[in-house]
Amino acid sequence: MLDKMIFGRFVPLDSPIHRMDPRSKLLLVFFFVCVVFLANNLVTYAILGVFTFILIALSRIPARFLFNGLKPILLLIVFTLLLHIFFTKEGAVLFDLGFVKIYEGGLLEGIYISMRFTFLILVTSLLTLTTSPISITDGMEQLLGPLKKWKMPVHELALMMSISLRFIPTLMEETEKIMKAQTARGVDFSSGPVKERVKSIVPLLVPLFVSSFKRAEDLAIAMEARGYRGSEGRTKYRQLSWQTLDTLLMCSLVVLTALLFLFRS
Amino acid sequence: MRIELKDLEFRYQMNTPFERLALHDINLAINPGTYVAIIGHTGSGKSTLLQHLNGLVKPTKGSVVIGDRTIEAGRKEKHLKGIRKMVGIVFQFPEHQLFEETVEKDICFGPINFGVPEEEAKKKARIALKLVGLSEDILEKSPFDLSGGQMRRVAIAGVLAMEPEVIVLDEPTAGLDPRGRKEIMDMFYQLHKDQGITTILVTHSMEDAARYADEIVIMHQGSIFQKGTPFEIFSQPEQLIEKGLDVPETVRFQLKLQKELGVRFDHPCLSVEDLAGEVKRVMERGSR
Amino acid sequence: MEEKLVSLKDVTFKYDGQDRNAVDGVSFDVSKGEWLAIVGHNGSGKSTLAKLLNGLQFPGFGSILIGDMELSEETVWDVRKKVGMVFQNPDNQFVGTTVQDDVAFGLENLGVQQQMMVKRVQDALNKVKMNEFLDQEPHHLSGGQKQRVAIAGVLALQPDIIILDEATSMLDPRGREEVLDTVRELKEEKILTVISITHDLEEAAKADRIIVLNQGRLYREGTPDEIFHLEDELVGLGLDIPFSVKLSKSLREKGVDLAGSHLTEEELVKDLCALNSRI
Ligand SMILES: Nc1ncnc2c1ncn2[C@@H]1O[C@H](COP(=O)(O)OP(=O)(O)OP(=O)(O)O)[C@@H](O)[C@H]1O
Ligand SMILES: Nc1ncnc2c1ncn2[C@@H]1O[C@H](COP(=O)(O)OP(=O)(O)OP(=O)(O)O)[C@@H](O)[C@H]1O
Ligand SMILES: [Mg+2]
Ligand SMILES: [Mg+2]
Where is the signal peptide (chain C) (predicted)? Predict the structure, then answer.
């Protein structure tokens, strides 16, 4: 089940999109989220669609993988569609099913909204699918850098995020180990009455908490021993490099926005 | 209680891109009352094998027979609690499983889960605590206020209090100082001798394997490479060395001496005493 | 006379809320280029001592001299450039998401220039033979490999001293050898002075000098020869003696004519050979 989820997973391939600077990709997602709302008719939605599909094609992520990954969210999209179809009462009546009338405006609105939703999901998934979590963190840190002036702990947040990323697999392993150890002591995590199962969380969570705490303490000591003293005077090993491709991507965003303004009604 | 693994195979994360063969072609019978040591490189499948012994993982092929229960690949298994009560596992760094407010509650946790009434569980906790060499005045303390060595002992007591017929130990002494290590190993051996508890020990220490075990199983890349008595296994130390495994220091020394001195020993020595006697004998024989 | 690199005088430390000193009036020196082993039972104060040497704790009493710097709140960051530490748990000291990020972490903290960093990360990883794992994530590495990366992280900072706090105790025999061989090479090449805290008496036997701690106090200091001469006294402290010392003792008790004790198997074999040809 979990391995079908695409949200938040990184697929290491070699493609123009993979090679782009995480900053430009982050900016792309940010602006895309804004301009999506400019679309309000068939032409503008078509423009958005073409743009999205060009990005997908460039990323070399197998389309099947991408759309399979959309399945868990499909339900949400269908639900939005139905909500609009049944509750928006504008334009001519298309069907009259007796208990409910479907209006043209409702149908269109429903289709538009679900398309908007799909494009948003596709473009944001594309970011995480083509960018390693650590690059995303780096990109964010750089983009938010100016906020440091207002005492925003940008560096600390980025470090926290990269450490969490680093420890997720370790914690998963730990959880499995503790579950097994308690199962061997007679805890039943997978069956039995709900009340019992809720109770069985304690022998799992307490050790997990204790060990995470110990890890955090050890890690803090290890970091200090290696001279960590906050962001001051710190250099970065990972360098981000802004290339022509990234500039092109930004230009294409401008073009997209212009087109959307031109063709929206 | 007899345990038998038949044509066992195990894959982690079966049918995913991350699938990984951890065990294959495992055939192993463990008779009641024996002390078995399992040795092998890191990643050779020792811990995975242990987890089959009380149904924590199910084979992806083959079967596991535990007493009168059979766990077979591909079949849904229910009510494994009975097995888990009889086969206790002490995991690596068992102190990581402590969670209760007091030592007493933590030790009683296992027995109570297996249906022992509270009063009786408390009695068992006291007995187990004595076995691991701790005094009763820590019963009311929080397990998290103890030293590392004491925590380890409390965790072990928690498994002993379940009064298992078979006890499975996954490197139980990692990180302890030499005395702590010896005390715990001796304690398990005493338990095995006195109460006839079947004991299965995973260890990286060839000395412990040689000293305590009736039978040694050597794992290599997910299957059993060799099994036999310590005597049999260490009679052919070359095979172990070839696989990059250690041999007990006594045997290693014998090999060196044989090479340098050009003498031959009649048998592998598994204790320092024995080795000293043999060296003396061999040298005297050589001089005659 | 050898150059003194570390000098402790009367160092005493107590954790808040404890009624016993964790480290109690400890004094000793470490010379440049030596391998010093520190042994002692669980809770004898070894890790605390290590933390004091790196300014992760400050002594309540006494002084610590690293090179020509007195360790204090002001000098601590400079001291840390000279004293690197590798801890016990391989997982809990791996900061970066990949091998190269982790090695670079200390350099980033010091504000080293990026091009320089790339070079030093490469060099350090070459020295511990982990250069082929640049982009590997920690959960795909073995314990021994993680510890070697940790050593590389220390090396990249070009310190004078490396402290290993039971750095091999969670590893299997092969991983342990990997790590110790790496450290031994670095010591041989005169890159590092080594302070190694360990429960492994075989490892301690190969050190230049051993310090025995007992309940926070320095119990004995000497060459491995001198220390392992204590034999049963050590066992009484919760420690053990190396195999060759045990065997040599047992042989002598059985009336084999050996002189003195034997720290390594090689010595014992040599003496036995000599004895044999004499007969
Ligand atoms: N939860 C898991 N998911 C996937 N693979 C695993 C998991 N646990 C172990 N493995 C793999 O299975 C194989 C056997 O691992 P196992 O832990 O049984 O080895 P081991 O002999 O106990 O090693 P060690 O001496 O390090 O404890 C290894 O290749 C390991 O990477
Ligand atoms: N963070 C702490 N807070 C309070 N007491 C501590 C702390 N860390 C250690 N101690 C105590 O200080 C003493 C020395 O501990 P230390 O960790 O230095 O021992 P050690 O020799 O490293 O032991 P081990 O061999 O178990 O690693 C012990 O009695 C311990 O209980
Ligand atoms: Mg294991
Ligand atoms: Mg310690």
Answer: none
A235 belongs to a structural domain: no
- Closest-approaching ligand to the CA atom of B219: 1
Helix (H/G/I), strand (E/B), else coil: A64? helix
The range of the structural domain enclosing residue A86 comes to 2-229+243-263
Q: From the CA of B281, how far away is ligand 1's center (Å)?
A: 45
A184 within a domain of the structure (yes/no): yes
**What are the chain A neighbours of C111 within 8 Å (beta carbons)?**
233-235
Pocket test for ligand 1, best of B42, B168, B221, B223 (most atoms within 8 A of CB): B42
ipTM summary value: 0.91
Closest C-alpha among B228, B192, B188 to residue B34? B192
Q: How far is CA A132 from CA A20, A66, A143, B157, in A?
A: 12, 17, 17, 45
pLDDT band of residue A12 (cuts 50, 70, 90) is: confident
Question: pTM to 2 decimals?
Answer: 0.85
B231 Cβ under 8 Å from any chain A Cβ? no
Q: Which of A80-94, B15-29, B35-49 has the lowest mean pLDDT?
A: A80-94
Q: Is B178 on the interface with C (CB under 8 A)?
A: yes
With beta carbons under 8 A apart, name residues in chain B contacting A203.
Answer: 97, 99, 109
Listed residue (B68, B56, B150) closest to A185, CA to CA: B56
Whether B52 lines ligand 1, by a CB cut-off of 6 Å, is no
Measured from the CB, is residue B42 less than 6 Å from ligand 1?
yes
Work out the average pLDDT over C143-150: 92
C192 and C161 Cβ atoms separated by less than 8 Å? yes
Closest Cα partner for C142 from C115, C170, C166, C120? Answer: C170
List subunits contacting chain B, requiring 3 or more Cβ pairs under 8 Å: A, C
Distances (CA, A) of C57 to C30, C53, C72: 19, 8, 10
**Alpha carbons A247 and A27: distance in angstroms, whole number:** 11
Instruction: Name the residue among B81, C237, C114, C102 with its Cα closest to residue A188.
Output: B81
Could C239 and B204 be called an inter-chain contact, meaning their C-beta atoms sit closer than 8 Å?
Answer: no
Contacts of A184 in chain B (CB under 8 A): 54, 56, 84, 88-89, 91, 159
Question: C163 Cβ partners below 8 Å, 6+ apart?
Answer: C50, C53, C54, C83, C84, C85, C86, C195, C196, C197
Residue ranges, comma separated, of all CATH 3.40.50.300 domains in chain C are 1-82+197-235
The DSSP code for B22 is E
Among 3.30.470.30, 2.40.160.20, 3.40.50.300, 3.40.50.2000, what is the CATH number of C1-82+197-235? Answer: 3.40.50.300
Distances (CA, A) of B175 to B206, C45, C170, C176, C210: 17, 15, 7, 13, 20
Long-range contacts of B125-128 (CB under 8 A, 24+ apart): B125/B157, B125/B161, B127/B161, B128/B157, B128/B158, B128/B160, B128/B161
pLDDT at C63 over 90: yes
* Pairwise CB contact (< 8 Å): C108 & A233: no
A-C CB pairs within 8 A amount to 92
| Dihedral, CA of residue A144, residue A145, residue A147 and residue A149, to nearest 10 | 180
